[in-house]
Write a structure and sequence with these properties.
The chain is mainly β. The protein has a single domain (4-414), classed as 6 Propeller (Neuraminidase). Helices cover 12% and strands 35% of the residues. The chain is built from 7 helices and 29 strands. It has helices spanning 25-44, 95-99, 154-158, 205-209, 257-261, 309-313, 410-414, and strands spanning 4-6, 59-62, 68-73, 79-84, 91-94, 117-120, 126-131, 137-142, 150-153, 163-171, 177-183, 188-193, 201-204, 221-224, 230-235, 241-246, 253-256, 272-275, 281-286, 293-298, 305-308, 323-326, 332-337, 342-347, 353-357, 375-376, 382-387, 393-398, 406-409. Strands 1-29-28-27-26 form a 5-stranded antiparallel β-sheet. The longest helix is centred in the N-terminal third of the chain and has 20 residues, at 25-44. The relative contact order is 0.14. Mean pLDDT is 84; it is low at 1-55 and 420-424.
C-alpha cells in the first residue's frame, strides 16, 4: 500500500493535488484526526508494530549495493531497516532478530536511546553501529554480496571505555573505518579499523590532543574535509564548537572554531558537518540563546569563518539538530525541524542562501516529531526521512529535475509503524 502527496507551490489554489479552498484550523485538525484514526486501524491489522523510542531520529544512507536504507530503533529496542532496492518498492527488516544482536540502549529522551548510525566501510561492508543497553558499541554489518547481516561487539573486541553518547561513524580519507562516541568521562573516543587490518582498535582523542571535555549532551559529528583532513566536531562544556582533526600523515590535533571565528555559543543539539558542492567545509549548529542556525565554514586555502544563515534567509528558528548534505542537483542543503514543520536552508551554487518550508501547506498536515536526516538516494532522488506525529516514518523527496517536493509514508508502504510522537 502506498501513500503519496505532492508538495503544493501555492497552498490554497485549485489543483488536483490540493484542496479547492483553504481549510480553517478547526477543519485541518478534524481532518487530521480522522486520517490518523483510519491509519491506526490499518496499522493494527499489520503483522508488526514498531515504534521508535520517544522521537529518536532515523539514520539514512546508500548501501554499497546501491540499496537506499533508513535505520532506526524500535520500541522493543530492536534495530530496524527500511530499505529500497533500485526499481522496487520499500521493504523492512529486523536486523536485531536476524543477527541475534543485543538490544539497543533505552531512555526517555532521544539522546539516551541507542542512536544508530550507518555508513559504508572502506571494504564495502555496510555497517550500522549503535549503543547497547550495557553501553557497549555494537556493529551490525553486511558484507557486499553476503546473504545476511552479522554483528560484533566493538567494545569487547577493543577493551574501549563504555559509551555515554553516540556513536557516529564515517570512513576516513586514509581508508580507516572510524566509529566515534563520548565516554562516561566526557572524552571523545574513536574505535577504528584500518583497511585490511585483522581487528578493531581504539584511541582516546581527547587525551591525544588535550582538547576540552565534551558537553553534557555532546553527540559529535564526523566527516572528511575537502582537503582530506579527517575531522570530528563537538560542543564543549563551555558551549564552544571544537574540532579534532587528523591531517594525512600526522597525528590528531584540535582547534576551537568558536574562538577562531568569534561565532555565537552553541546550544546542546549536535552540530552537523559536511563538504559543500563548492568544496567549502561546513559545520552548522543551533546557537545557545536564540535557536538560530549558524554556519562555520572553511573555504579551501583559507581560515574558518562564520555566517548567520537565519539572518541571511529569514528562516524560522530550529527546534532540533540539523542535517547537512549535497543534493543531486548540486544544491547545498541544511534540513531541520521547526515547531511544526521541516525546513530547508539551501545554497544554489553561485547564489545566496535561501529558505523553504517543506511540510507546511500539505493537504494532510504531518507534524514532525524528530529531527530529519537528509541524503541523496542512489537513484539521484533527494530524500529527507523523519518521524511524524502519526507514528509513521515519512519521506520528503525531490527527484532530480523536479521543481516540487513530494511526500511518501514509508511505514504505510511497509506495513509497520515507524516512530512515536514525542518532541525531540
Amino acid at each position: 500500500m502506498k501513500s503519496q502527496v505532492n508538495r503544493t507551490a501555492n497552498p490554497g489554489q485549485s489543483s488536483s493535488d490540493r484542496l479547492e479552498q483553504p481549510m480553517t484550523k478547526k477543519e485541518v485538525t478534524l481532518k487530521t484526526q480522522i486520517i490518523k484514526t483510519m491509519l491506526a486501524g490499518l496499522i493494527c491489522a499489520a503483522a508488526s508494530v514498531l515504534i521508535t523510542p520517544l522521537g529518536a531520529s532515523a539514520a539514512a544512507y546508500v548501501r554499497s549495493d546501491s540499496v537506499n536504507s533508513v535505520v532506526y530503533e524500535g520500541s522493543d529496542y530492536h534495530i530496524y531497516e527500511l530499505y529500497l532496492p533500485l526499481g522496487q518498492g520499500w521493504n523492512y527488516g529486523d536486523l536485531t532478530a536476524q543477527t541475534g544482536a543485543p538490544l539497543a540502549d533505552r531512555g526517555r529522551e532521544a539522546y539516551y536511546a541507542g542512536q544508530p548510525a550507518a555508513y559504508i566501510r572502506s571494504d564495502e561492508v555496510n555497517s550500522v553501529v549503535y549503543r547497547g543497553s550495557n553501553k557497549h558499541i555494537y556493529e551490525l554489518y553486511l558484507p557486499l554480496g553476503a546473504p545476511s547481516w552479522k554483528y560484533g561487539d566493538l567494545t569487547a573486541q577493543t577493551g574501549a571505555p563504555l559509551a555515554k553518547w553516540g556513536p557516529v561513524a564515517y570512513r576516513r580519507s586514509d581508508r580507516v573505518n572510524a566509529v566515534v562516541y563520548v565516554g562516561a568521562d566526557n572524552h571523545i573516543y574513536e574505535l577504528y579499523l584500518p583497511f585490511g587490518a585483522p581487528g578493531w582498535k581504539y584511541g582516546d582523542l581527547t587525551a591525544q590532543t588535550g582538547a576540552p571535555l565534551a558537553g553534557s549532551h555532546a553527540l559529535p559529528a564526523a566527516y572528511v574535509r575537502s582537503d582530506k583532513v579527517n575531522a570530528v566536531v563537538y560542543v564543549g562544556a563551555d558551549n564552544h564548537i571544537y574540532e579534532l582533526y587528523l591531517p594525512l600523515g600526522q597525528g590528531w590535533k584540535y582547534g576551537d572554531l568558536t574562538a577562531q571565528t568569534g561565532a555565537p555559543l552553541a546550544g546542546y543539539e549536535a552540530p552537523a558537518a559536511y563538504v559543500r558542492s563548492d568544496q567549502v567545509n561546513s559545520v552548522v549548529y543551533v546557537d545557545k540563546n536564540n535557536y538560530r542556525i549558524y554556519e562555520l565554514y572553511l573555504p579551501l586555502g583559507q581560515g574558518w569563518k562564520y555566517g548567520d544563515l537565519t539572518a541571511k534567509t529569514g528562516a524560522p528558528t530550529a527546534d532540533g539538530k540539523l542535517s547537512g548534505y549535497v543534493r543531486s542537483d548540486g544544491v547545498n542543503s541544511v534540513v531541520y525541524k521547526g515547531s511544526q514543520y521541516i525546513a530547508e536552508v539551501y545554497l544554489v551554487p553561485g547564489q545566496g542562501w535561501k529558505y523553504a518550508d517543506l511540510t507546511t501547506g500539505w493537504s494532510v498536515p504531518i507534524i514532525p516529531y524528530s529531527a530529519p536526516d537528509g541524503y541523496r538516494r542512489s537513484d539521484n532522488v533527494n530524500s529527507v526521512p523523519y518521524c511524524g506525529d502519526d507514528n509513521h516514518i515519512h519521506e520528503l523527496y525531490l527527484p532530480l529535475g523536479a521543481k516540487t517536493w513530494q511526500i511518501g509514508d514509508l511505514s504505510l508502504q511497509t506495513s509497520v509503524t515507524g516512530c512515536h510522537p514525542v518532541i525531540h
